[in-house]
Amino acid sequence: MGFVTKVDGTFARQKRRLRIHFKRRGIERGLRIIPNLFTLGNGFFGFTAIVLAAQDHILAASYFILLGALMDGLDGRIARYMKITSELGTQLDSLCDAVSFCLAPSILIYFWQLSAIESIGFMGCATFALAGIMRLARFNITANQQTIYSSGVTTTIAGCFLATISIACQHYYFSNSMRLYLLIATLLLAWLMVSTIPFPTFKQVSGNTYSIIAGIVFAFIVTMGLINVLLWGFLSYFAYTFLRFFWVKFHTPKN
Fold first, then answer.
1. Per-residue pLDDT tens digits for 178-210
2. In a domain, 126, yes or no
3. Long-range contacts: 49-54, Cβ < 8 Å, 24+?
4. Any idea what the CATH number is for the domain that residue 13 is in?
5. Which of 46, 64, 147, 246 is deepest in the core (most CB within 10 A)?
6. pLDDT digits (tens, 9 = 90+) for 68-109
7. CA 29, 35, 41: angle at the middle one, nearest 5?
8. How many domains does the chain have?
9. What SS3 string covers the chain?
10. Per the domain annotation, does 97 fall within a domain?
11. Residue 142 CB partners (closer than 8 Å, separation 6+)
12. Within a domain: 82
């Protein structure tokens, strides 16, 4: 009887350990879904932006692209905070970025202004979308080689910049000459995405510094408005990148 009791006790303990083990694995699987939900939220907002742009709701479509960028920023931070990374998450992020920051902005700009210059506008928007997709594909195979700088401007920044321009210029009258300037800007962004110019990613910025910057940005948003802050922020980012690039290019000693 004593032997049977001992065996039963050992079996019960093993059963409890297995139950706890499977419960923990179930919780871990559930937690792994959380970053992917934010990534899918990015894709959902991008798809919504495409539908709204096709229905001529340009302002709403622009804001949905910016919401997609918010989801795109949150999914990575949540994954790093929870120490959850996976190949599925990486691929899913690129696919959703292609929808939200390649297809959605190009369709937005086309229906907003560039459809008025017909095939030239169409090809310009298509070039932006394809360049963004190319940039994402290149990033997927060179991600481990990139440090605090990204090779070419990210699709998120390029797409959100076009969305911000759309919001800021919503009430402006566009002549064909102004549409050509918009086309040039779209093509320039397409080129920057596939270029090898190093754009800062600010990954080296500490959490405390982020908090200070967030406080300053919030103060500017309150006084200047969100879109003005975004527009000047993007322009400052591009100006800083180009100034740094040419400074390094022309002031680095040649061997």
1. 999 999 999 999 999 999 898 888 766 656 665
2. yes
3. 49/100, 49/104, 49/108, 50/99, 50/103, 50/104, 50/107, 50/108, 53/104, 53/107, 53/108, 53/111, 53/112, 54/107, 54/111
4. 1.20.120
5. 46
6. 999 888 877 776 776 667 777 778 888 999 999 999 999 999
7. 125
8. 1
9. CHHHHHHHHHHHHHHHHHHHHHHHHHHHHHHHHHHHHHHHHHHHHHHHHHHHHHCCCHHHHHHHHHHHHHHHHHHHHHHHHCCCCCHHHHHHHHHHHHHHHHHHHHHHHHHHCHHHHHHHHHHHHHHHHHHHHHHHHHHHHHHHHCCCEEECCCHHHHHHHHHHHHHHCCCCCCCHHHHHHHHHHHHHHHHHHHCCCEEECCCCCCHHHHHHHHHHHHHHHHHHCHHHHHHHHHHHHHHHHHHHHHHHHHHCCCC
10. yes
11. 151
12. yes
**Whole-angstrom Cα distance, residue 49 to residue 107?**
9
**Does any domain span residue 98?**
yes
Q: Is the pLDDT of residue 122 over 90?
A: yes
Q: Which domain holds residue 88?
A: 2-142+154-195
